Amino acid sequence: MNQHYRKIIHVDMDAFYASVEQMDNPELKGKPLAVGGSEVRGVVSAASYEARKFGVRSAISGIQAKKLCPDLIFVRPRFDRYKEISKKIRKIFHEYTDLVEPLSLDEAYLDVTENKKGNPSATLIAQEIRKRIFDEVGLTASAGISVNKFVAKIASDYNKPNGQKTVNPDEVEAFLEKLDIKKFYGVGKVTAEKMYQLGIFTGYDLKQKPLDYLEKHFGNSGFHYYQICRGIHNSPVKPNRKIKSVGAERTFGENLSSEIFMEERLQSIAKELERRLQKSKISGKTITLKIKYSDFTLQTRSKTLPYYVSDKNIILDVAKDLLYQERLRNSVRLLGISIHNLNNEEKAKTDLLQKSVSVQLKFEF
């Protein structure tokens, strides 16, 4: 029987922020580089491949990064520049298909089952896209090609940097069986440790566990794990992905212990949040205050309003109430305000009801 499959490409830029910095400043090429953070404060946003060899990666503190790599160079992030480059890359994607789902500035899913070039080979399309990004933008990208988003995402990491991996329909289950469970997209560090304790080390091990066993140990996620180890993942590429939250935050040069000083900082954060909400033309009901203490522990406090807001003064009033809701546990290094429960969610529900037309095409990688 002739099966019909989607052809999905996951394109992932290689060390995107760091690569942009090295491209714009040739003196940084070939050197260990961290975007964000510093020797004394802050968190690393991205690391070049030269820095990664020493164990430097995103989300670790600048202090820790410098200990791992004494020659590390820190540069300030330039998000406007990254967005500018990202737009150029997305323009290339849209020359091949309108079914593009960006996950962030540096990665996206493309459904090329039907494509504007009339090319039946997703592998060749991925090669062409990567070549065009290099020729027209000056950066390298990696790609994964397969029958669904889950497998394509894992495959894009397989031959990084500047490589690609195709997993054909008849190869999917064997590919997943050999994979270490921590390589499964969506299986975080805590879940991976739990699986290891249960004797689940590979996709094959996961496949041996019955559904009731997985649901017993992993609750609602059990069914998801049962499906993904069999290569079942039916989520379509969603070109109009809805924003679920908008936020702004600040890391301080010195830890703050007085709420009065924090109020001043919250004022500028609320102003920035209002700007972002107005730019996106959305508002929300649930306001969350994020507090990161000097010992790096995190706390969030939320309040849901009966109406949608985007005004900085209302946001600030709620954030202040949340700040004084209970005593602070320690001095504070970071404050953030985010807004959820957005007024674009009603439209998102309507969009989900629209059926996507499936085209019966012979699958050819």
From TrEMBL:
Where would you find this protein in the cell? Cytoplasm
Q: Does the keyword Plastid apply?
A: no
Q: Which Gene3D superfamilies match?
A: 3.30.70.270, 3.40.1170.60, 5' to 3' exonuclease, C-terminal subdomain (1.10.150.20), DNA polymerase, Y-family, little finger domain (3.30.1490.100)
Family annotation (SUPFAM superfamilies): DNA/RNA polymerases (SSF56672), Lesion bypass DNA polymerase (Y-family), little finger domain (SSF100879)
Residue numbers binding Mg(2+): 12, 106
Quaternary data: Monomer.
Keywords, alphabetical: Cytoplasm, DNA damage, DNA repair, DNA replication, DNA-binding, DNA-directed DNA polymerase, Magnesium, Metal-binding, Mutator protein, Nucleotidyltransferase, Transferase
The record's Pfam families line, in alphabetical order, gives: IMS, IMS_C, IMS_HHH
Top-level taxonomic group: Bacteria
Active-site residues, Swiss-Prot/TrEMBL: 107
Q: What's the source species for this entry?
A: Flavobacterium fragile
Domain UmuC stretches: 8-188
Gene field:
dinB
Q: What is this protein called?
A: DNA polymerase IV
- Using the UniProt record, name the top-level EC class of this enzyme in a single word: transferase
* One Gene Ontology term of the molecular function aspect: DNA-directed DNA polymerase activity
Q: How is the cofactor bound?
A: Binds 2 magnesium ions per subunit.
